[in-house]
Structures are given as structure tokens and as C-alpha cells.
Amino acid sequence: ENTVIKVQDNETGKVFETKIDTPIEVVGYPVKNIKPVKLDLDLKYDFNFLTVGTWIPRKNMGNTIRWFVEEFYDQDVGLIVKTSLMKNCLQDRIAMQNTLKNILAEYKDRKCEVNLLHGDLSEEEMAGLYNHPKVKAFVSLSHGEGFGLPLFEAVYNELPVIAPDWSGHTDFLHMPEKKNSKKLKPMFSSVSYDINPVQKDAVWPGV
Q1: 61-85 per-position pLDDT tens digit
Q2: 149 closest CA partner among 52, 57, 81, 25
Q3: Fewest CB atoms within 10 Å of the CB: 11, 41, 128, 186?
Q4: Measured between alpha carbons, how far is 80 from 53 in angstroms, rounded to an integer?
Q5: Alpha carbon distance, N-terminus to C-terminus of the chain
Q6: How far apart are CA 35 and CA 44, in angstroms?
Q7: 117 φ/ψ sector (left φ>0, alpha ψ -120 to 50, else beta)
Q8: What is the DSSP letter of 197?
Q9: Maximum alpha-carbon separation in the chain
């Protein structure tokens, strides 16, 4: 909305400024009307949280699992972790299974359950995951999302969201308090957070 571009008329050589004068509204991704397919998930409990993301430092999956177990240690609650390291191959799945086993070994006699969901899912299967009767909320405890496509998909599938009230996903997780109001209110359950420098192990040279 605030961008001004200098352009030149090829015929006259005249340079002038141009900008958008009409009000604009932007959605980075479309809201898709996808028919969910039924997923046969072997879930122990009727109430499960869902988290989706690649196993990289920014997504904070390891701490998400630890904090879930610490919060729901002795309760009939589950967490579905849809993740992978890089690719959805067999070696990746084995590595993820071992990673989760190592984390969960710290919590002996826990009652809550953590389920690994690994592999490619179609858009219809992902919609089935967001709409599964035993999936009650989406949780993201990332170290800052650029946009958060799984969060966006969860929202337009009407799945409640739990996330920090900071970073890119707040663009679509807020709405005006009143019609034509510029004051926004969160339409999700916000968790507390700290803002710190990016960890050294998460820094990509040149990125």
C-alpha cells in the first residue's frame, strides 16, 4: 500500500511516480474448499492436539513435545506430531521414531500419549487430519513463523489454534474488534513467549 515506484515512459522519456490508489486486501494463500477423507488413526484418547512442521530448530518440535508431556503428564490426552527431517523416506521415519523415543524416555510412567505421523499426505488427507473427530486443537510453539501454512489450514478447517501472539501467523489469527475498527483481537489461544536472538545452531550462513 505504501510502495511508490518510479517508471519511465519509453516514448517520451518522462519519469514519473506511480502507486496504488485503491484500498487493497491481501491473502498470501487461498482458502481451499477440500473435501476431507476419513483417516484411520489408532488414537488411544478422544482428545488430541496436533502439531505439524519439519523437524528444524525454528519449528521447535522437540520442546513442543517436552512441554506437552510436562503439562499433560498424568492426563488422558494425546499429541499427534506430523513431522519429518527432510524427506518422507524410510530412513527419515526411523530417525524420527528414534528421536521421539529418546525424548519420551525422559518421562517414565507418563499417561499422556505422543503419536508420530510420518509420510506424504494429500490435501484431502490433511483436511481429514484437521477435521478428525479426535483432533481438538492445533498447537504451534515455533521460534517465529514467516506465515505458517499448517496454522492457516487449521484455521480455515475451523480447528482451534494455540500459538504465541507474535510473528507472521498473527496476520490471519486476528480480526477487528468491531466492524471497520483498526483495533484487532486475537481469535486463538495465546501462549506466553520471550523474544531472544536467534540461536547459533539455527543460523544459516547467507540466509
Answers
A1: 999 999 999 999 999 999 999 999 9
A2: 52
A3: 11
A4: 11
A5: 27
A6: 26
A7: beta
A8: P
A9: 79
